[in-house]
Amino acid sequence: MIKPIKALLILGCGYVGSKLAYAATTQGITVKATVRNQNAANSLNKLGIDVVINDNPAVLDKSWLAGCDAVLDSIPLSYNEKRKPFQTQRGWVHSLLENMPKLQWVGYLSATSVYADSGGDWIDETSTHFSNSPRGVERLGAEQAWLTSSAPAEVFRLAGIYGNERNIVSKLKAGNYKTVAWQPAHYSNRIHVDDIVAALMAAMQKSETGRIINLSDDAPCPHVDYVCTLADMIGAPAPIILTPEQAEQEMSAAYLDFFRDNKRISNQKLHQDLLPKLKYPSFRMAAPYLKG
Q: How is domain 7-162+190-217+264-280 classified at the CATH fold level?
C-alpha cells in the first residue's frame, strides 16, 4: 500500500490520458501532462491541466517535474520514414527517473499486440508466446525499459480501445464496412476507455511493482460477430462479409493482418487485483451510448 497519490504526470496525454486526467482531478490529484502539439495542449488546458509540448521526456524541466509522485507513460510507438515502429523509452527513462526520485507509482500502457496469435486459445499474463511483429517487439522493449528500471513500475497490456465518442459507429453507419468470416472463427478483444481509467485509478491505490495486467473486457468474440451485432444494435447497414480469399484481393496486407489475428485475452487478473466488475463487460452494454 502506498500513500495517496498527490500529483500525476501523464506522458503522451492522448485519448486514454485525457480521460484519466479528468478522473484524477475530480479526486483532488494534481495533473501535469506532455503532448506533441498545441491543439492537444489547448484541450487539456481547458481541464485545468498543466501541459508542456514535448517529445523527449529526458529534457523536461526538473522544477516542473517536482512534486509529481506518479507517472503514466502513454507514449505510443514512433515510426520512421519507412513506417517501421520503434519505442523511445530506452533513451529517456533513466534520465527522467533521475529527476523524479520520490516516485510512488509508474504505469506503462502497452498493448496485447505483444502476444502472438494463439489460434483462439486464452492468453494470460504468464504467457511468453510473444509476437515477432515489429510492433509487438517494440512494445515489449518499452515494457522492459520500465520494468528493469529503478522505478516502481507496472505494465498494462490494453486490448482494442473504444469509447462513447471513439468507435467504429460512423464507419458502420456510412455503409460498405467490410469484415472477414474465418473458418474457424478468429477472436478479437476490446475494452471501454472508462474501464481502463477505472483500472488505472485503482492501480495507483493498490500498486505492485513489476506487475503486468491485461486490460480487456469479459467478452472476446469474432470480429465479424462484433461488427454485425453492433450494426444491428445501432441501426447501421449490415457489414459486407468477405471470405478470406476475397479479403486477400480487396484489403491491404496491414489491414488484413488485423483481421487475421486470433486470440482471446484473459482478464482474470484484472478482476482479481483491481476491478471485480467492469462498467462495460461487453460492447453490448456500451452500444446504446456510442456516438459516431
A: Rossmann fold (3.40.50)
Q: Which long-range contacts does 236-239 make (Cβ < 8 Å, 24+ apart)?
A: 236/169, 236/172, 236/173, 236/175, 236/177, 237/172, 237/173, 237/175, 237/176, 237/177, 239/172, 239/177, 239/178, 239/179
Q: Residues 199-254: pLDDT tens digits?
A: 999 999 999 999 999 999 999 999 999 999 999 999 999 999 999 999 999 999 88
**DSSP state for residue 237 in the 8-state scheme:** P
pTM above 0.85, yes or no: yes
Would the CA dihedral through 150, 153, 159, 165 be positive or negative?
Answer: negative
CA–CA gap between residue 120 and residue 189 (Å, rounded): 11
Q: Which long-range contacts (CB under 8 A, 24 or more apart) does 252-259 make?
A: 256/180, 259/179, 259/180, 259/182, 259/186, 259/223
* Of 82, 68, 73, 81, residue with least CA distance to 110: 73
Domain limits, the chain: 7-162+190-217+264-280
What's the rounded Cα separation, in Å, for the pair 146 and 155?
8
Joined grid coordinates for residue 69: 509522485
The distance between the two most distant Cα atoms of the chain, rounded to a whole number of Å, is 58
How many CB atoms within 10 Å of residue 129?
12
